[in-house]
Amino acid sequence: MFRGFLxxxxxxxxxxxxxxxxxxxxFAGLHxxxxxxxxxxxxxxxxxGYILTNVRKRSDSLxxxxxxxxxxxxxxxxxxxxxILLERAS
Length: 90
Known about the structure:
mainly alpha
């Protein structure tokens, strides 16, 4: 939705620079309620959104940013699961 539709429309209308910023802020905005009060995590999501949008622009394809987003989410899930397992083991 963000890097496929929104970025494409904004880049066509206003150029890729503004499209990257607006798409990144919109992506982060979707996560803000989930992360409210955790300012470091909110900033991280904004940066991740910008990086993923930049990858989308540079590759001219959604596939690399989808793979990176999946890997990022998988890493967070894995760390969380490992943390829970280690906490239960101690």
